[in-house]
Amino acid sequence: MTLNNEAVLALAPDAASASAARALVSPGKWPLLGRNDGAVWGECKGSGAKPYQTQVDLRASAPAFRCSCPSRKFPCKHALALLLLCAQQATLFTIGEPPAWVAEWLLSRDAKEEKQAAKAAAPRSEEASAGSAEKSRQRAGQRWEKLENAARELSIWLHDRLDQGLGMLGPAQMGDWQAQAARLVDAQAPGLAARLLEAADGIRQGEDWPERLLQRLGGLYLWCLAMARRGELSEETQGALRSVAGWPFEKAEILATGEQLRDSWSVVGIAQEEVDGKLLERRVWLQGAQSGQRALLLDHAYGGRGFAEPWLGQTAFAGTLAFFPDASGRALVLSQEGGAQMQWPSTTPEQEWDAQAQALARSPWLRWQPLIAAAATPFLRDGRAYLAWGDYCLPLLLGERDQWTLLACSGGHALKLMGEWDGHALHPLSAEGADGRWQRSLA
Amino acid sequence: MSLWAELIPAAMVGTARQMPPLPGTAGEIGETLQAAHAAAPAAAGKLLGMAAVLATCGRAAGPQPAPGEYGAAADSESLPAIAEPALLALLPWLLQEAPLRLQQLVFIDFAGQGRRLPYAMLPAALELARANVALREFIQPLLGARGRWLAGQNPAWRFAAGVGESAPEAVLWSEGSTAQRCALLRAERQRDPAAGRERLVATLAELHARERGELLAELIHGLQLADEPLLLDLLRDRAREVRDIARTLLLRLPDGEFAARAGERMAVCLHQERRLLRKVWLLEAPEAFVPAWANDGLVADRPKNDSLGERAWWLYQLARQLAPGWWCAHTGLSPEALLHWAQGTDWVEALLRAWRETLLLTADAPWVEAMLAVLPAKLLPPAAAAELLALLPCDKREKYWLASLRELPETADPLLLVLPKILVAHEPGAMLSAGFSADLLAHLVAHAERQTTQAYQQRLWLLDLSCIIHPTVLPQLLDVFGPSLAGTPWLHAFEQLLRTRQALGR
Questions:
Q1: B398 and B462 together in one domain
Q2: Is the pLDDT of residue B465 over 90?
Q3: What are the Cα distances from residue A417, in Å, to A319, A353, B98?
């Protein structure tokens, strides 16, 4: 992993940790600092009598941390500060043999890795593998049955709601909607439950709420109709039905059935938002230079933990992606090498909208479309931000501070810009102007 | 989307009561809608099916083309941006958390080098300028074309929106920011004072009080008797700050009619008497307020709760319309002698107040020194002394402070008594001399055990002192006081400050 300020700060689980770490970046606080080829370690003066022992294993692409402080955040501020100090003032670290408490930890990590690799590579007996394949087919079949039942039930419920009419919906009816969502969760369709609750949140919000609610209910009904004719649909569409319901794919399934593509991938935008309380969702959008294909890496982090893999916007790598077999554009990174240059595609607005329509044709339930504008100008009208792009004028959704830094980057001139389109507004994630770059600040 | 409008009534009322209509539309969408309508047996199903078609097709269609008209783009830059990596890394901290004096120092330095801020820092800089009026004049030159354009986009930042430095004079005058107009007027007054005055007169009516005051203050350049009528007029302006500035300028015209009238009025109150072998001056405050005096800006009613009596109030007003030089000329006494004499009259409070105010406006150095030397602390409280001290040039100030440091009583805390005065008198961008800085540090160290001030206040002062102390002494200051800050968030601030000053080279 390359050590620089931005990369280290991207590992922070939240903004408070990042600023706490910055306050600890002073040599006076670290009586012991050392490093060797694969690891960095140090002792930090804390509030207790004994200093905290912090260590970071840098050998793999994703760093591993350990610290003796009682913080529940991961990585803690000491680990972040240690890395920042190493990035800014590497000369402070004495190069040499690690002390016992570091060497032991590294050895135990190596032992764990070997055990896991051995387990994965161990040849399973033929019957055992055949038996387990049969079992998983049975489980899949059972799950599909549950979903089909859920679809029938949801369809009846939707009919009832429309029969009664949307005009009578109010707070008193929410109990019923929540009960239906709970039934969907019981049927192992949490994704649908979430969509239903989102639709419920939109009731009587804004002037055009009936239209928006009908759109969402129409989307749910479409899923029910599709589930009823599942057998006639392609593998890919069935995959889409699964993903919408919230039935995750195993890595083995993805590798077996999904498409794999090697290309030079540019990280064109990163979005991070809180869903459901303490759960953080991160969407990393990639653009393939030769194939022109777009991909989405989706991660979640819970509680105080940071994301496992650090990603930096407006960088690039050469490697292979394995796409999920669900027409969503979601992918896994199979291999990753450095040394690629970030490239912006030069598509026209008409080409982008066309690609969007194609993607929706394969899976009508997509929430986010990645849009890339080769030349667009953000501007303000009546205090609201818009993007002038070709013949189009799109509303922009972003925080006030980001809005001003984006305008400062543009200065009224055209920019290359990437954002997520949700059907109504564009959420800009990154941009490049004639004299500098811009990225949306992470939550 | 009129197709939705056809479906919504049935949806709202309920498909049990109303059959959803089939929206009339041709083409593939129409056919798909028909298919959805036909495929579902129940009315609700028909509506849901059509909603599904419209939702998906509507989303796939994307937005309607619409014109996005926007204003002009920013001009190209004439100044280079700050590019040193060390300074760039410190800019976010500087714009948000640094002490005011350090910010002033850095901004003055950048402006002196003719640099502008990088684009990413512009919103933070404009916000800082909005919140901190004292910093506006220092930040304005650093904005560049992009910064001025950005300021024009946000009503809260309009104050910074001027025009480019290279714009023609007429444009600069009509559309520039206040700071730019002041600079233009100043330059014109230096070339052709009469033309400058005419320009100001032409625009006075449309300005509000603050701008009137700022532009009027520029008349000090090339001040001449011909300006007097305008100034007399402005003596009766609505805003007090404008009246004060007009009075300041009039005080600098000792040959004008204003000065002549003021002198006559005061001369009536003063007369000489023979006492024993000497001639002594006696002062009597006016018995009554002459109504004609109101024309020159004098006020008859004294404010409530003022410590001066009514006659003293009138005397004070008369006195403060005179330049200090008049007293020396009229009585033939030196400033020191006049101060001693004043303490012997009944009207010392009124006289001293008037003299202090006029000195703040005219900055007459011999008078300032005399006041500081002669007056006891009872008549010249430390805050007032600090204000006067600020009028002296830097080396005289430092001599005075050294003297007061040496005269500190044994148990006094130098931090509490001397440091605030030094800070109040400080000009933005200036630095204490090396010699004085070393002496000051020596005193602070020697008396470290006597420090009675609270830790928080002490740290604030030390932080401010670190902004103005000479660069050779700064590391020593941090060495001495650093250990007491270990473990507090202040240490970070001090270290950032040190890094900033090192990166700046000052």
A1: yes
A2: no
A3: 24, 15, 33
Q: Got the DSSP string for A77-95?
A: HHHHHHHHHHHH-GGGSEE
Contacts of B122 in chain A (CB under 8 A): 404, 408
Residue A300 lies in a domain: yes
Q: Using 50, 70 and 90 to split pLDDT, how confident is the model at B289?
A: confident
Torsion (CA) B127, B130, B133, B137 in degrees, nearest 10? 70
The two tokens of residue B112 are: 């002196």
- Looking up tokens 């995959």, which residue turns up? A239
Are both B367 and B441 inside the same structural domain? no
Tell whether A408 is within 8 A of chain B (Cβ).
yes
* B166 has pLDDT over 80: no
Evaluate whether residue A343 is within a structural domain. Answer: no
Domain of A317, CATH number, reads 2.40.50
pLDDT band for position A123 (50/70/90)? Answer: low
Pick from B11, B59, B66: which is nearest to A423 by CB? B59
A221, A244, A267 - which closes a domain:
A244
Residues of B in contact with A435 (CB under 8 A): 119
pLDDT on residue A88: 81
| Alpha-carbon gap, residue A356 to B59, rounded angstroms | 9
Interface test with A, best of B7, B28, B70, B494 (most A CBs within 10 A): B70
Domain count, chain B: 5
Exposed/middle/buried for residue B473 (C-beta within 10 Å: 0-12, 13-18, 19+)? buried
B371 is in which domain, residue-wise?
A: 258-388
List, for residues B427-454, the tens digit of each pLDDT value. Answer: 777 788 888 888 888 887 777 666 555 6
* Same structural domain, B352 and B246: no
Is A249 a member of any domain? no
Domain limit, last residue, from A316, A337, A358: A337
Question: Could you tell me which chain A residue has the CA closest to the CA of B49?
Answer: A218
Long-range contacts of range B61-66, CB-CB < 8 Å, 24 or more positions apart?
Answer: B61/A357, B62/A353, B62/A356, B62/A357, B62/A392, B63/A392, B63/A393, B63/A394, B65/A390, B65/A391, B65/A392, B66/A391, B66/A392, B66/A393
Instruction: For residue B425, give the 3-state DSSP assignment.
Output: coil
Looking at the structure, do residues A280 and A227 belong to the same domain, yes or no?
Answer: no
Quick check: is B168 in a domain?
no
Count of structural domains, chain A:
4
Q: Please state the ipTM of this predicted complex.
A: 0.80
Of the candidates B336, B365, B388, which is a domain's last residue?
B388
- Domain identity same for B245 and B281: no
* Cis peptide upstream of residue A75 (ω within 30 degrees of 0): yes
Residue B412 confidence (pLDDT): 65
Query: What are the pLDDT digits (tens) for A393-443?
Result: 999 999 999 999 999 999 999 999 999 999 889 999 999 998 889 999 886
Q: In the prediction, which pLDDT does B163 show?
A: 67
pLDDT per position as a tens digit, A152-203: 999 999 999 999 999 999 999 999 999 999 999 999 999 999 999 999 999 9
In a domain, B286, yes or no: yes
| CA dist., res. A400 & res. A423, Å (int) | 22
Instruction: Measure in Å the smallest separation between the Cα of A148 and chain B Cα atoms.
Output: 18
Task: Flag whether B78 is in a domain.
Answer: no
Q: Kindly provide the b/e burial profile for residues A80-115, where b requires at least 16 CB atoms within 10 angstroms of the residue's own CB.
A: bbbbbbbbeeeeebeeeebeeebeebbeebeeeeee
Domain end point (choices B161, B183, B200): B161
Q: Is B287 helix (H, G, I), strand (E, B) or coil?
A: coil
A274 and A316 in a common domain: yes
Q: Are residues A117 and A10 in the same domain?
A: yes
Q: What is the pLDDT of residue A296?
A: 96
Tell me the shortest Cα–Cα distance from B57 to chain A, in angstroms. 9
Both A284 and A315 in one domain: the answer is: yes
**Where in the sequence is the domain holding A364, given as residue range(s)?**
349-439
